[in-house]
Amino acid sequence: MSKIQYSNDGNIKHLLTIEGLQEELIYKIFDLAESFLNVGNREIKNVPLLRGKTICNLFFENSTRTRTTFEIAAKRLSADVINLDIDSSSQSKGESIFDTVDNLISMGADIFVVRHPEPGMPELLAKHVGGNAHIINAGDGNHAHPTQGLLDTFTIKKYKNRFDNLSVAIIGDIKHSRVARSEIHALTTLGVPDIRLIGPTDLMPTDMSKINLKIFESMDDGLKNVDVIMMLRIQKERMIGAIIPEEGEYSEKYGLRKKHLLLAKKDAIVMHPGPMNRGIEIDSDVADGQQSVILSQVTFGIAIRMAVMSMLIGKNI
Ligand code: CP
């Protein structure tokens, strides 16, 4: 099965990855998101687009932003939302995720938003459910986090208007980051000519050699004249068997400080997908500073997730 499955109307059936997603579809999601941006500013913050539909959040890993913004997005589309509490569900009695999903489909679930530590689990679920439901990958191991990649590039578009003249630096633990992978695929498809990865050699990806990426070990070299600075945290939970860098030393070499902003373009934006470790990969005065768009990323995430869910169901505003 190709990772991208299309419905008869040319829209996608499931959102499992950004890899292979056509530029035209990404822009369609951006246009839809743009049309949803204002819903959050209305007195009554919803539209009836997904009334009668049921969205199930299945989070097998912790989350603040993704889970909550998917729930808000679904409610803004007037859908019913189920947040399955995995710890108190029958998963704890040995039920398989496939049986859980089958049961929820029998209860009328239309879309499953799935976060899982195992790379590829959303794809397996998409194969399993066939045409009976839609699957959205909300992060699977170090593989992909497609809505994060979409909301990040949407944020870049909002601040920079275009992609074909940008230099984007992604800094930190790229090897273990599903966000970085989705981000790199989205930036590449959207035509960003200069994508830089900055970090220790041990934390560089080994699976992206086909993509034109510039690798830097030094912040001072990699940040020169960039338009976008995207910080990542060290993902210790995925560093099984790897050498975890010593925090103080890592922060000294790869923590973003005010002085680094002077290397980038004057109007460079600072991004972080969250959760942030203040004082480690980013100083508070940068995270909360004028160039930071970190909280805009979260707000735009709601519109992007509304766009993705309504596209899967085949509804446009
Ligand atoms: N960016 C992101 O995925 O954050 P959460 O883990 O809080 O969902």
Automatic annotation (TrEMBL):
<feature type="binding site">
    <location>
        <position position="93"/>
    </location>
    <ligand>
        <name>L-aspartate</name>
    </ligand>
</feature>
<dbReference type="GO" id="GO:0006207">
    <property type="term" value="P:'de novo' pyrimidine nucleobase biosynthetic process"/>
</dbReference>
<comment type="pathway">
    <text>Pyrimidine metabolism; UMP biosynthesis via de novo pathway; (S)-dihydroorotate from bicarbonate: step 2/3.</text>
</comment>
<dbReference type="GO" id="GO:0004070">
    <property type="term" value="F:aspartate carbamoyltransferase activity"/>
</dbReference>
<feature type="binding site">
    <location>
        <position position="65"/>
    </location>
    <ligand>
        <name>carbamoyl phosphate</name>
    </ligand>
</feature>
<dbReference type="InterPro" id="IPR036901">
    <property type="entry name" value="Asp/Orn_carbamoylTrfase_sf"/>
</dbReference>
<dbReference type="InterPro" id="IPR006130">
    <property type="entry name" value="Asp/Orn_carbamoylTrfase"/>
</dbReference>
<dbReference type="InterPro" id="IPR006131">
    <property type="entry name" value="Asp_carbamoyltransf_Asp/Orn-bd"/>
</dbReference>
<feature type="binding site">
    <location>
        <position position="148"/>
    </location>
    <ligand>
        <name>carbamoyl phosphate</name>
    </ligand>
</feature>
<keyword id="KW-0808">Transferase</keyword>
<feature type="domain" description="Aspartate/ornithine carbamoyltransferase Asp/Orn-binding">
    <location>
        <begin position="165"/>
        <end position="311"/>
    </location>
</feature>
<feature type="binding site">
    <location>
        <position position="66"/>
    </location>
    <ligand>
        <name>carbamoyl phosphate</name>
    </ligand>
</feature>
<feature type="binding site">
    <location>
        <position position="274"/>
    </location>
    <ligand>
        <name>carbamoyl phosphate</name>
    </ligand>
</feature>
<feature type="binding site">
    <location>
        <position position="275"/>
    </location>
    <ligand>
        <name>carbamoyl phosphate</name>
    </ligand>
</feature>
<protein>
    <recommendedName>
        <fullName>Aspartate carbamoyltransferase</fullName>
        <ecNumber>2.1.3.2</ecNumber>
    </recommendedName>
</protein>
<feature type="binding site">
    <location>
        <position position="145"/>
    </location>
    <ligand>
        <name>carbamoyl phosphate</name>
    </ligand>
</feature>
<feature type="binding site">
    <location>
        <position position="233"/>
    </location>
    <ligand>
        <name>L-aspartate</name>
    </ligand>
</feature>
<comment type="function">
    <text>Catalyzes the condensation of carbamoyl phosphate and aspartate to form carbamoyl aspartate and inorganic phosphate, the committed step in the de novo pyrimidine nucleotide biosynthesis pathway.</text>
</comment>
<comment type="subunit">
    <text>Heterododecamer (2C3:3R2) of six catalytic PyrB chains organized as two trimers (C3), and six regulatory PyrI chains organized as three dimers (R2).</text>
</comment>
<feature type="binding site">
    <location>
        <position position="115"/>
    </location>
    <ligand>
        <name>carbamoyl phosphate</name>
    </ligand>
</feature>
<keyword id="KW-0665">Pyrimidine biosynthesis</keyword>
<feature type="domain" description="Aspartate/ornithine carbamoyltransferase carbamoyl-P binding">
    <location>
        <begin position="13"/>
        <end position="157"/>
    </location>
</feature>
<feature type="binding site">
    <location>
        <position position="178"/>
    </location>
    <ligand>
        <name>L-aspartate</name>
    </ligand>
</feature>
<dbReference type="GO" id="GO:0005829">
    <property type="term" value="C:cytosol"/>
</dbReference>
<dbReference type="GO" id="GO:0044205">
    <property type="term" value="P:'de novo' UMP biosynthetic process"/>
</dbReference>
<dbReference type="GO" id="GO:0006520">
    <property type="term" value="P:amino acid metabolic process"/>
</dbReference>
<dbReference type="Pfam" id="PF00185">
    <property type="entry name" value="OTCace"/>
</dbReference>
<dbReference type="InterPro" id="IPR006132">
    <property type="entry name" value="Asp/Orn_carbamoyltranf_P-bd"/>
</dbReference>
<dbReference type="GO" id="GO:0016597">
    <property type="term" value="F:amino acid binding"/>
</dbReference>
<comment type="similarity">
    <text>Belongs to the aspartate/ornithine carbamoyltransferase superfamily. ATCase family.</text>
</comment>
<dbReference type="InterPro" id="IPR002082">
    <property type="entry name" value="Asp_carbamoyltransf"/>
</dbReference>
<dbReference type="Pfam" id="PF02729">
    <property type="entry name" value="OTCace_N"/>
</dbReference>
